[in-house]
Design a protein that fits this description.
Two copies of one chain form a homodimer. Chain A is an alpha/beta fold. In chain A, about 45% of the residues lie in helices and about 15% in strands. Chain A binds a DNA duplex through helix 2 and helix 4.
DNA sequence: CGTAATCCGTTAAGCGCTTAATTACCCTAC
DNA sequence: GTAGGGTAATTAAGCGCTTAACGGATTACG
C-alpha cells in the first residue's frame, strides 16, 4: 500500500472484468449485476482505491471543489473571527462529501478577480462563494460572463444571483429600540467602509429607524474595521459639541478600540457611554466591561451558502435563502445615558 | 469568450501547428522555433487560454496544490488570529505561482488523517503542511507511509521531516529574565494542552530557565486555549496559598480571560499581578491594560513553510528552517510585583 | 420456434495535456 | 553525391476515468 495508488484498471484486473464495468459498479449505475458489483466494491476497498480527482474532472468536467477568495488586507484579516467562523460553517457543510474548499486571501480586488478567472480557466472549481459585495461589484459581472456558478453571502442585490442573507435591518432596529428604551437619544453608528453593500444596508436601516424614532441627532460615521481608524473616529465623535451617549459599531474590533478611547477620555462605560458591537465574539465577551453585541449566525450562513452553491452547480434555480435572525446579546457595555448636565 | 474555455487544440488550429508544438511552446521547452513560439504565445493569450489543471495533473502527475488541515474545535478556531495570519503568510508565498491552497477544518484527529489520506488518494495535493504536532503524531507515520511530501510547522522532532520552527525557548527565557528583573519570583505558566509538542517545548524551557534563575516556586499549569478553561485555572492559581505575582500564558485569549479574572478578584494589573500573553495580537493591543506579549513571526512561518514544501516537492532534501526570533513586546500588563505583605 | 426484449458486460472514444519517438528538412563535411 | 548531424515540426501513446455504442447470452412472448 506504500506509495502506489490503485487505479480502476488494477481493480478490473483483480476482478477479471473490464474497466468500464468497474466504473459502472463503483458509481452505482446500472449495467453490472449485483454479485459483480459487490465483488468489485470489495476489491476496491481492499485495495484502498480512491478516484483520481484529475481523471474524474477531465472526463466529467467537474472539479469537485469550490472556491472562496477573501479580499482583506492581512493586517485586518487575522483580527476578525468572522472569516474563521465562516470557514468552519463551510467545512461543516462540505464534510463527508467529495467537494473540497480552495481558499485564497488577497489584498486587492484585481487579484481577487484574477483568482476567480484563473480557477475558472483551470477548471479547478465548480463554483465560488462571493463575500463582501460592493456596489456594482465587478465579480458579479465576471461570474455571469463566465457562467461560473456563484453564491453571494449577503443581501439579495443582484436579482438573478443566488444568495444567503441575514436580516441585518431587523437587528439594527432592535438595537436602536433597545438603546432608545434605555433613554438614549444621541446615537452614532460607526460603520465599516461605505463601499460594502452590507454597510449601506445597515446604514440605511439605521437612518430610517432613527427617523421613525424621532432621533434627530442620530448619524453615521465611517471607519475601515481597523482599531486605529475606529479610535480616531471615536475620539473625534466623543469630543464634538454634543457627543453621543451611545455608539453602535460594525464589528467587534472597533468597539473594543472605542472602549480604550473612552477610558482614555475618562468616560466610564456604560455609565457615561454605551457601546454595542456588531459581530459577537470572544473579544466582546472577554473585555471589561463585556460588550453588548449583535450575534449573527455566521457559521450557519457559510453552511447554507455551500448547500445552495452545490445545488446551483447541479442546476437548481437561483434561490435567495435567509438565515435565522441575528440577536442582540446585552452585556455590560450598555445602560441608561447619564442625566443631562445642568 | 463567454463560457467557452480554449484548449491547446484551439490554439493549434489557429496557429496551424500540432498540439504538441503548442505544448512545447507554451512550456518554454526546445523543439519550436522562436517565431513559432511567439506566434503561439500570442494566440494563446489573445484567446485567454489557461491550462486545465485536471488535464495537466493527469498527464504530469502534479496537482499544483498543497493542503492544510487544521484540527481545532470550531469554538476555538474563530477566536485565535493565529490561523488567519498563518494563512496570510501561506498565500503570500503562493501568490503568483501555479499552486493553490486546499483548506480543511476538522474537529477530530481521525477526520484529519482521513483528509490527508483522501487528498493523497485523489492526487489532489502535491504535499501538505502539518501544524500542531503532538507526541508520536500519527500524521507523521501517515505521510511517510504515503510518501506524501510534508513540512511540519514546529520544532524539529522527527529527524528526517522538513520543518519550519521558531525559537520559542529563547522567548521563554527572555520573558522569564524580564519578569525576574522586574522583581518577580513566583511565576506561573498557564500552558496549552500537554499533548502538543510546542507546549512541551515551552514548558521544558520554562522549567529549566526557572531552575537556573533559582525560582523554586515557578510552575506550569494547563488549560486548553479557551477563555473558560483559562479563567478556571487562573482563578484557582490566584486563590491558592501563595499566589504568583506573574502569569505567562500560551495564547492571547487566555491572557485576556485572566485579565477579567484578576478584575473579578479585585487584583489590579499590573500593580498586583503581571500578565504576559504568548502570541501578540490586536486583542493584546486593545484591552486595558494592554497586554505585554511575545510576538512571533507567524506569517513568516507560513511563507517559509510553503517555500520549503515546494522545494521538497521538487526533490530538495529535508531541511530544517528556523524563522526569525520571537520578541517580547512589553506593554502595560507587566510591572514590579507588589511589596511583600508584612 | 423465431424474434424481440432484457440483462450484463466489453469496446473504444474522448476529456486536455505532456512527451518519447519519429519524420522531414536543411546544412555541412568528406 | 551521400552520409551525418542539427533543428523544427508531427505523431501517437498515455495519464485515470466516464459513457455512448455495441455484442452475446438468456429470457419472454406470440
Amino acid at each position: 500500500m506504500v506509495g502506489k495508488r490503485p487505479t480502476i484498471s488494477d481493480i478490473a484486473k483483480a476482478a477479471g472484468v473490464s474497466t468500464g464495468a468497474v466504473s459502472y459498479a463503483l458509481n452505482n449505475r446500472p449495467g453490472v449485476s449485483e454479485p459483480t458489483r459487490r465483488r468489485i466494491m470489495d476489491i476496491a476497498d481492499r485495495l484502498g482505491w480512491v478516484p483520481s480527482s484529475a481523471a474524474r474532472s477531465l472526463s466529467d468536467g467537474r472539479a469537485n471543489a469550490i472556491g472562496l477568495v477573501v479580499d482583506r488586507p492581512a493586517r485586518v484579516i487575522g483580527v476578525e473571527p468572522y472569516f474563521m467562523q465562516l470557514i468552519s460553517g463551510i467545512q461543516g457543510a462540505l464534510a463527508g462529501g467529495p467537494t473540497s474548499l480552495l481558499l485564497q486571501v488577497t489584498d486587492n480586488s484585481a487579484a481577487e478577480l484574477a483568482a476567480y478567472r484563473r480557477w475558472w480557466g483551470e477548471r479547478r472549481v465548480d463554483g465560488v462563494l462571493l463575500v463582501d459585495l460592493v456596489q456594482n461589484d465587478p465579480r458579479v459581472e465576471l461570474v455571469q460572463e463566465l457562467r461560473l456558478p456563484a453564491v453571494v453571502l449577503g443581501e439579495p442585490v443582484v436579482p438573478d444571483l443566488p444568495c444567503v442573507w441575514t436580516d441585518d435591518e431587523l437587528a439594527v432596529v432592535e438595537v436602536l429600540e433597545y438603546l432608545v428604551a434605555l433613554g438614549h437619544r444621541r446615537i452614532v453608528r460607526v460603520a465599516g467602509p461605505t463601499k460594502f453593500v452590507h454597510t449601506q444596508t445597515r446604514s440605511r436601516a439605521f437612518t430610517t429607524a432613527a427617523a421613525r424614532l424621532g432621533l434627530a441627532e442620530a448619524r453615521v460615521v465611517h471607519a475601515d474595521y481597523s482599531d486605529e481608524a475606529a479610535a480616531r473616529v471615536t475620539r473625534r465623535v466623543l469630543t464634538s459639541g454634543t457627543p453621543p451617549t451611545a455608539l453602535v459599531f460594525d464589528n467587534d474590533v472597533m468597539a473594543v478600540s472605542a472602549l480604550g478611547v473612552a477610558h482614555e477620555l475618562g468616560l466610564t462605560v456604560p455609565d457615561q457611554l454605551s457601546l454595542v458591537a456588531w459581530d459577537d465574539s470572544a473579544l466582546c465577551r472577554l473585555v471589561r466591561p463585556a460588550l453588548s453585541a449583535v450575534r449573527r449566525p455566521i457559521a450557519e450562513r457559510g453552511a447554507a451558502a455551500v448547500r445552495l452553491l452545490l445545488d446551483v452547480i447541479n442546476g437548481a434555480p437561483a434561490e435567495q435563502v435567509k438565515t435565522s435572525d441575528p440577536e442582540l446579546v446585552p452585556r455590560s457595555s450598555t445602560s441608561h445615558p447619564p442625566p443631562p448636565t445642568p
